[in-house]
Amino acid sequence: MKNPFIIILKTCRIFYYEGIHGLLIRVRGRLIRKTAITDSTVTRDSERKVWEKSILNGLEATKMVVLDDFQTVDEKLDHNSSNLTLLMLVPPPERGSGGRMTMARILKKLTESGIKCYVAFYPEVPDHNFKKYEHEWMDEFDFAPNECSILKYAEATERSFDIAVATFWPSAYAIKYQIKARSKGYLVQDFEPYFYPPGSHYAFSEDSYRLGLWGLCASPWLAKKLSQEYKMQTVGFELGVDKREYHQLSDVKRDKKLVIAYIRQHTERRGYELVMWSLKKIKEQVPDVRIEVFGDPHLPIGDFLWIDKNHGILSHEELCKLYNYASVGIVTSFTNYSLIPNEMISCGCAVVDLDTECMKSVFPDAAISLAHPTPKSIADAVKKLLHDNSLHESQVLAGLKYIEKVDWERSLEKINIAVRNFSKIDAV
Hints:
Structural class: alpha/beta
Order of helices and strands: HEHEHEHEHEHEHEEHEEHEHEHEHHH
CATH architecture of the largest domain: 3-Layer(aba) Sandwich
CATH topology of the largest domain: Rossmann fold
Low-confidence stretches: none
Helix content: 40-55%
Distance between the termini: 89 Å
Number of helices: 14
CATH class of the largest domain: Alpha Beta
Radius of gyration: 29 Å
Strand content: 5-15%
């Protein structure tokens, strides 16, 4: 502690030479420095707590990789398909999720074929939210009350099933190590290691393909990749399109200057920044074009003057109208392809997507425009379609010809047969 006499002496000297004003400035400066030091200490403590919490959350979220191993049920499968049971672990509902919609379609098809299907949410949802999630799942996908029962995860681990199916990498570990079933599979809708930078999550998700589960893969590219690189038994299927929901409307006039784009800020594989800068370049080079986006309810704070409208999240009916109004639609995915290109094509909208191995394995050359992942390349592809009417018309016609062969029923039947073959069940 400083000597009080020294402090009084210094105070008197400041007052004598600088007056009351100088003294007040010195006192104010000392208070500010003291507050800054205190705030800095608080900030460091808060940051440390946030860091520690993130570490604990990371361990909690990945603990499935060290779950105890259940032995696969040994009894022979009952060939009476009316008695077969199947459990699918699905993520909790999320409005507008195409992946969950595909899961629901598969469950409906397997139920129609005579398999009794069950669902359990994974990660496990809290008991106080279970009824809410159950209602959302049944309501969004229009399941009848007893069509596909939803079990609590704890209950699912206590039962035995003929077939159990994972739907994303954490649930693959749960199926492998905590669910009792005679046949265990994995619905793979994307190459999930690409969701992460190299690190723990990349390694854990990649290793989920080495767990010995058979795979239903949502593209020929994905089936080939998992089979060749991970020696996984796979069957690939093509994503379909519901033509009752997505089709050309006779009462909607297409706007030749309307470009639409799918954006999703929190999903890295959608290349949000790439799409936004591509749209800016398009607007600069074609000032009279109208640019509208959808898929994300909010644009971040900022001046995005090149975006004329953000539709947010739309219903199937609203999307169909938008695709019918638009001349060109931009959809980007750096991993597996999505449902959106098929839906746009079915509505007569010319599509621009990324030039990837997956896209080339699915779409004929003339049915879609593929661009390198640069704003200039995407903007150039869009401009060609806007300025060259014959190119636009030929691509739309080629797309419609391609989409004639795309059918959910064909893909779902392929999945039904694959599930039974992998599980050594005769198809019915």
